[in-house]
Amino acid sequence: MSNNFVTKSVKHSEFKDKVTSEEIIIGGPQYQHSAKAVKAKIHRLTSHLHSTPQPCLIFYHGGHGCAGSYADYSPIVDRYSVECQATVISVNYRLAPDHKVPSGMIDAFAAFRWVMEPENAKELDIDLNHVAIFGDDAGAWIAMAVS
User: Fold this and answer.
1) Contact between residue 17 and residue 45 where contact means Cβ atoms under 8 Å apart
2) Which of the four, 19, 88, 107, 132, has the lowest number of CB atoms within 10 Å?
3) Which of 140, 126, 141, 119 is nearest to 57 (CA)?
4) 20 assigned to some structural domain
5) 95 phi/psi in degrees, rounded to 5
6) Has residue 8 been placed in a domain?
7) How many domains does the chain have?
8) CA-CA distance, 24 to 88, in Å (whole number)?
9) What is the pLDDT along the chain (147 residues), one digit of tens a residue?
10) Which helix (H) or strand (E) holds 112?
11) Could you tell me what percentage of the chain is helix, strand and coil, using 3-state DSSP and rounding each to the nearest 5?
């Protein structure tokens, strides 16, 4: 039996030059009670800087809820930005065991609400009619909770 599925090894350098990124602080208690303002990294296509508002993906990193950060996922998030032709907002959130569940989910929801504010969306140059959330590992559970 033949396997028609072929994987391609991709080096980060293939996407690094196509994406710019910056760190910002988003969320906080004004968007959800008991949330903390958290760091996020915005990944934008260099070819779409200051053009029309872009679709947006909000990404929650993996790490079993007790490890990881957006920095660990920067190479793959750059790829998501290029392949999806979208701005990707990679969100840090509080982790166990330093913070009890549901602290990370609360931070993630506040970050989502922050992104969805029209003034913030305009500043980020994103299209609020085209926003999706997703995550890896524990980040997928967080995306499910946020949705």
Assistant:
1) no
2) 132
3) 126
4) yes
5) -115, 150
6) no
7) 1
8) 13
9) 444 544 444 455 678 789 999 999 999 999 999 999 999 999 999 887 667 899 999 999 998 889 888 888 999 999 999 999 999 999 999 999 999 999 999 999 999 999 999 999 999 999 999 999 999 999 999 999 999
10) helix 103-116
11) 35, 25, 35
